[in-house]
Every structure is written in C-alpha cells, then in structure tokens.
Amino acid sequence: MPIVENELLYRRTQRQLGEIQVALKLALGVAKALPNLEGIEASCFSLLSAKNAIMKSIFEMEDGQ
After folding, report:
1. 2 found inside a domain
2. So what's the pLDDT on residue 5?
3. What angle is formed at CA 10 by the lines to CA 50 and CA 13, rounded to 5 degrees?
4. Is 12 inside any structural domain?
5. Is position 41 within any domain?
6. Which residues in 39-51 are b (16+ Cβ under 10 Å) and which e?
7. What is the CA 43 to chain-centroid distance, rounded?
8. d(Cα 17, Cα 11) in Å, to the nearest integer?
9. Distance in angstroms (rounded) separating the CA atoms of residues 14 and 3
10. What integer pLDDT is reported at residue 3 of this predicted model?
11. How many domains does the chain have?
C-alpha cells in the first residue's frame, strides 16, 4: 500500500471510488436496457467524469502531491 500523508482521507476517497464504480456499472446497465431513457446518457457521462476525478485525486495522494 502506498504511503500517503492522510491515511483516513485516502481510504475515504478509495471507498468513494468504489461507490462511483458501482453506480456507473448500474447506470450503464440501465442505459443498455433503456437507451431512450431521458438523461441516462448524461448520467453515465457525469459518473464517468466523477470516477476520473476521484482516480486523479488518488494518484496525486499516492505520488505525495
């Protein structure tokens, strides 16, 4: 496990990443089943953007930035 300055924040961020990944998987399943559902494409895009932002935060914590 990488050494980070704030272990609690790091773990909380990791947990949030997992929750976003679950939500994204569910949203993608809905998008596949109901492609014409209003707002589902925007929801998937927003969740993917959130996932990328959280991953960036985690990488920065691991790099000590």
Report:
1. no
2. 74
3. 25
4. yes
5. yes
6. ebeebbeebeebb
7. 13
8. 10
9. 14
10. 66
11. 1
Q: Domain containing 43: what range?
A: 7-63
Kindly give the confidence (pLDDT) of every residue in the chain, 65 residues in length, as a single tens digit, with 9 standing for 90 and above. Answer: 556 678 899 999 999 999 999 999 999 999 999 999 999 999 999 999 999 999 999 999 988 75
Residue length of the chain: 65
Q: Are 50 and 16 in contact (CB under 8 A)?
A: no
Task: Count Cα neighbours of 64 within 13 Å in the Cβ-side half-sphere.
Answer: 2
Coil, helix or strand for 43? helix
Looking at the domain assignment, is residue 1 inside a domain?
A: no
Neighbours of 64 (CB within 10 A): 9
